[in-house]
Each structure stands twice: as C-alpha cells, then as structure tokens.
Amino acid sequence: MSALFERVALIGLGLIGSSIAHAVRRGGLAHEIVGYARSPETRKTAARLGFLDRVTDTAADAVEGADLVILCIPVGVIGAVTEQIAPSLAPGAILSDVGSVKSSVIAQALPHMPDYAELIPAHPIAGTEQSGPESGFAELFDNRWCILTPLPTNKPESVAKLRRFWEGLGSQVDTMDAAHHDQVLAVTSHIPHLIAYSIVGTASDLETVTESEVVKYSASGFRDFTRIAASDPTMWRDVFLHNKEATLEVLGRVTEDLFALQRAIRWGDGDALFERFSETRAIRRGIVEAGQDTASPNFGRGKPPTE
Amino acid sequence: MSALFERVALIGLGLIGSSIAHAVRRGGLAHEIVGYARSPETRKTAARLGFLDRVTDTAADAVEGADLVILCIPVGVIGAVTEQIAPSLAPGAILSDVGSVKSSVIAQALPHMPDYAELIPAHPIAGTEQSGPESGFAELFDNRWCILTPLPTNKPESVAKLRRFWEGLGSQVDTMDAAHHDQVLAVTSHIPHLIAYSIVGTASDLETVTESEVVKYSASGFRDFTRIAASDPTMWRDVFLHNKEATLEVLGRVTEDLFALQRAIRWGDGDALFERFSETRAIRRGIVEAGQDTASPNFGRGKPPTE
After folding, report:
1. Which residue among A4, A240, A245, B227 is the one 20 to 30 A from B47 at the CA level?
2. CATH classification of A180-300 is 1.10.3660.10, yes or no?
3. Is any Cβ of chain B less than 8 angstroms from the Cβ of A237?
4. What does the pLDDT look like over B86-145, one tens digit per residue?
5. Closest Cα to residue A255, out of B251, B186, B243, B250?
6. Residues of A numbered 33-72 whose beta carbons fall under 8 angstroms of chain B's beta carbons: which are they?
7. Beta carbons of A299 and B205 less than 8 Å apart
8. Å between A44 CA and nearest CA of chain B
9. DSSP assignment, residue B139?
10. Tell me, what's the ipTM?
11. pTM value?
C-alpha cells in the first residue's frame, strides 16, 4: 500500500499511541511519523525505542505540517489539548482521536477547530491491561474493530481516507453516531471495567478473608477480573466522568439484575438461577465465532508449566 | 512414585473427574482407575477415550473394593449419591469430593457414612469453562491449589495420604475448616461467577444495543466476563443454593461498593474514582507473581510485544 498520509502526528505515546506508530510503520501508511508526549520520560523512551521518525518537544511542533493528527490521550484533556494545538493544524488536516467516549470528545474539541481542518473522532476497540510507550506493538489492532463517529460536516472523502488508514492498521471499521457509540461501549467496556475494579477492590477489603488467600485461590474465577482492573486509572476515571448518562443507565440495569439473583439465592430459587446461568453460553460462542476471543479453554493461558 | 492407592473410583466423569483420571494415570497414583457417570452417553465417551481402566454400570460397582472414592458431581446431589454408595464402601476407604462448597458437602454426606470409612472433603481450585468427559486433561491441577477441609474425626495418616495424592496430581495442598473455605471461595470464585453471569445476561437484554454489537465490540472488556459465564449452569446453581450465607454476604459488599461508585459517577467525583481504580493493580501483580495467572497482556491471547 502506498502511503496514505504525508505525515502522521501522534499526541500521546502510551499503549495506543505507540501501537499506532508501530502499525503505521508496518503498513507503510505515512512517509513520516512524528510524536509528542507530555512527559519528558515518555519522550525519551519513545526516542530510544525508535518507533517514531521524530519526537518533538511540543505538541504544536508535532502537529505542524501533519495531514493526520491523532490524539492518544485521556478523554478528560481532549478540550485543553485541542485548544492548544488547533492554531498549528495544517489546512486540510484531519484531527482524530482514540478515546473510549465520543460525544464528549466532540463537545470538547469542536469549538476549537479551525474551519480549514476536520475533526473525525475514532475509537479502536483494542487494548491490553498495560500502559506506556513500551507496551505498544504493531499487531494490537489486527482483526479488532475501529469505530468512526463522523460529523455531518465531514467530507465523505476524508472519512473514507481515515477508514482506509484504520484498515491499514489491521482493523475492521464501522461508523455510527457518537451517542450510540457511547451506549454500546458503556455495555461492552465501561461497566465491565467498573465492575472489575469494584470486585477486585472489595475482595481486598474484607476482614474474614486475607488478600493472600484471594491471590492464592484466584484461579477459581477472580483472576479473570484482575486483568482489566489493572488498566490505567486516569484513562478510566475520565471515561466515567465523560460518559455519565450511559454508564449510569447500564449500571442501574446490572444492579437490578444482581438484586434479582440475590433474591433467588436467598429464597433458594434454583430454577431462576439455572435459567439465568443457561442463557449466557450462546453469547460466548458468538464472540469466539466472530474472532473476538480465543476458543481455547482459560483464554489459552494453557496448560500450566508442569515442572 | 509408587501407587498410593490400590483402586481409585471416580463418580462423575466431567471436566474434573476425567482430568483426575488422566492425572492419576500420569502420576501412577493408583493400580486401577474405575469410574461411573449417571449418563450412559458419558460412560460411552469415557470408555472410548480410555482414561479409565474400567467403566461400571452403577455407582455401587465402581465404589466396591476402592480405597479412594472421589465424588466429582454437582454439590446438590452429594447427599443422595453418598446415601446410595455408602453401603458399598470398603473398610478403611476414603470418600472425598471436589465440590466448590464444603460445609454443605459435609452436612449432606456425613450422616450416611459408615463408621469403617472416612469422609475427607477436598476442593481443587482449577477448572476451565468447558464441561464433559472430553474436556479433561492431565495438567489441569498442575501448580493450582487444592484445599482439604478435614473433619476432627479424620485420622492424620488418612489426611496425609489424600494430601500426597493431590500433590501427585500436580497441586499444592492447603487445609482449612469448611466454613472458612466457603467464605474464601465466595470471594474468589462464587461472586465473580455470579457477576459474570449477571452482566453477560444484562448485556443481551438491552433495547438500545443489539447482541451483535455486544459480540463485535466485546474485545473492549466484555469478552473477559463471558468465559466464566459459559460455565456449567447446574454446577453453579448448586453452588449458590449451598453457599447461601457467604455469597449473600459478599454480594452485599459488592453492591454497596457499586453504589458508592455510581454516586461518584453521578456527582462527578473524579478523585474517588481515581483512588478506587489505583488500588487494584497490586493485587493483579500478586496473582501473577504467585504463578496463578500469566503475565502476558490479554492473558496471552494476542501477540505480545514483538521487541
């Protein structure tokens, strides 16, 4: 594939930013990849790892002359950073992002946009529980979905170009409106993370069971929750602050359902429990068939080392 | 290792029963492994797979002459099955089990025990989301914990022998009293399963988000919950019916904590969210260091960082 963009600028060089850089290079999607991170430490690490052609000392320097700029930063600082870089955006540039919330990104960024550049929000549904410039890798987006939430004012050819870019990173691409995106992600991502954080936190707070017992016997289910509860706290704080309505709505559903199960346990209603527990295998099967998880038992953690 | 037991009888040939058979053979822990399952289909599959020396047509036939009998059946039928096999237990035989709940197993089984045999309850903390005789494998218990909850009346040498047996299957062995076991497992296993069932069920019940969207975008967190929500419904119904007090207690804590988080979201209390989300990484690290989970991102599902 010939390069889609002359210069891609990445603002923020954590797991997602660094993975985009690796994948842009793998796909030959840009002639130059430049990047900036707020922390000097991160910039130094990025320079050492060499996944960028150039690390800049300011966000404005990175943005200058780039035809694609991607904000790979927590949702809570989208407004401030857009305000800061907007004057440096090149005519015709596309400004995009990778935030887990889309309505708020639009509300924060759009007021700062010059009329000669376009905001096209995006959200790659991919990640690991790790953070930082050393955790990125080129295959992160392969066979994962990326959701674009274009604005009515976007040029179709700009949206098509960003779509081809994400396809070049290995993703399948969907488009939907921002409000619907935020509802979907509340279900598939935000509330699962909140619950994982909650149960892992609760488990380490009990008087009758020690933390060392929780750790030892975690293979019985608990350990599955600890992976996503090890995700970046700043990123997740911002998600909940910026997707309040949808997450509260889904959380209300979940607690309602938990109360129904609690009642079934209290009254010994085995049929209700059995029915609930029987409905859920199909959705697991669907996820495996859609290539969104492994079919191997225990996520393919595999047979533990024998000796 | 020379054979610890003359004849091991397995009642129930699902994931755990069949895995014990494979591991007994691997370790040379018994001269003969016999087994029985209620379903003729399961018995036929077990015979075809050949992980037993002998498949019997009744539970009593399997138990006869065995010096170790292990019930690998749902907790809800422990009483009935013990009553049925008790008259066939050999003098000096150990009757054990693999149930996820221990106080109830003792309450159900003990009244039926003849005074010339011993009940020593056990619980291997190991499993996958799969079920049935074809899902078993010899390595399932390697480096996992097995908890024994001996009775005050057990002979120390019998407990020591059962401990060596589980070590021979690959496990590390702990002992504790049954009531404490049930509290620990409520935290590490039962409530995580209940919550996983609940959130997976809730997600497929929403009006605004389709099930196909949930499946497509599940890599953003949701898919982690679907694995344990694909576990055997009968087994899990019985767990909650037979560990009512401890599961209700822990569930009460979790919902209380969820309400606190809900309140923090509603009031935009970012500090409270950040603090909660920062406490949970250490426990993940502890689990990885204890060898109870993989350190690879995404449970090692995906490609790890290349360099």
Report:
1. B227
2. yes
3. yes
4. 999 999 999 999 999 999 999 999 999 999 999 999 999 999 989 999 999 999 999 999
5. B251
6. 49
7. no
8. 17
9. G
10. 0.89
11. 0.89
